């Protein structure tokens, strides 16, 4: 049977076999089974896994990644054109993420807008702790940077 074993994919992708099984369960990758039940992945899975890792590294959630991967063709390895189309759809999202991170970087030395009143400048930025009336968490921080990571116990 053709295809890469889970060990081969793990070695080539740098991901643990448990992560590969999880990604399969989440619908991010697919594998066929041998007569003995061993997984066999198409070689094109390596590109998908590289995409998953890059997307996670820029803060995209697994549901966002799955939705993007679902736009790729079935039954054949995605072409360069397919990947370009997929990435165009994320350009605005990534630009928003970059702007939010720049805002965070530029504000770290003064205040991140959390309403904590722990810094002297908060009395100027948040008199009377008005941010507390807007709810829990860092209310003035970009919503992209306030997202609770999937699998986190926070929430």
UniProtKB/TrEMBL annotation:
Keywords noted in UniProt: 2Fe-2S, DNA-binding, Iron, Iron-sulfur, Metal-binding, Transcription, Transcription regulation
The protein's matches in Pfam families, at most eight in alphabetical order, are given as: MerR, MerR-DNA-bind
Q: Where does the record place the HTH merR-type domain?
A: 3-71
Q: Which InterPro entries match?
A: DNA-bd_dom_put_sf, MerR-type_HTH_dom, MerR_fam, Redox-sen_tscrpt-act_SoxR, Tscrpt_reg_MerR_DNA-bd
Q: Which NCBIfam families match?
A: SoxR (TIGR01950)
Q: What is this protein called?
A: Redox-sensitive transcriptional activator SoxR
Q: Which organism is it from?
A: Geodermatophilus maliterrae
Name the encoding gene, please.
soxR
């Amino acid at each position: 049977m053709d295809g890469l074993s889970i060990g081969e994919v793990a070695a080539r992708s740098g991901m643990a076999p448990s992560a590969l099984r999880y990604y399969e369960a989440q619908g991010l990758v697919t594998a066929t089974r041998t007569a003995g039940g061993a997984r066999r992945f198409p070689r094109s899975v390596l590109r998908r896994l590289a995409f998953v890792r890059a997307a996670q590294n820029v803060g995209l959630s697994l549901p966002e990644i799955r939705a993007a991967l679902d736009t790729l063709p079935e039954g054949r390895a995605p072409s360069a054109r397919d990947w370009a189309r997929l990435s165009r759809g994320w350009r605005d999202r990534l630009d928003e993420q970059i702007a939010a991170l720049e805002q965070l970087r530029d504000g770290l030395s003064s205040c991140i807008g959390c309403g904590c009143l722990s810094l002297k400048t908060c009395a100027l930025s948040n008199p009377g702790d008005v941010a507390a009336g807007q709810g829990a968490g860092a209310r003035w921080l970009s919503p992209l940077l306030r997202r609770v990571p999937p699998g986190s116990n926070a929430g």
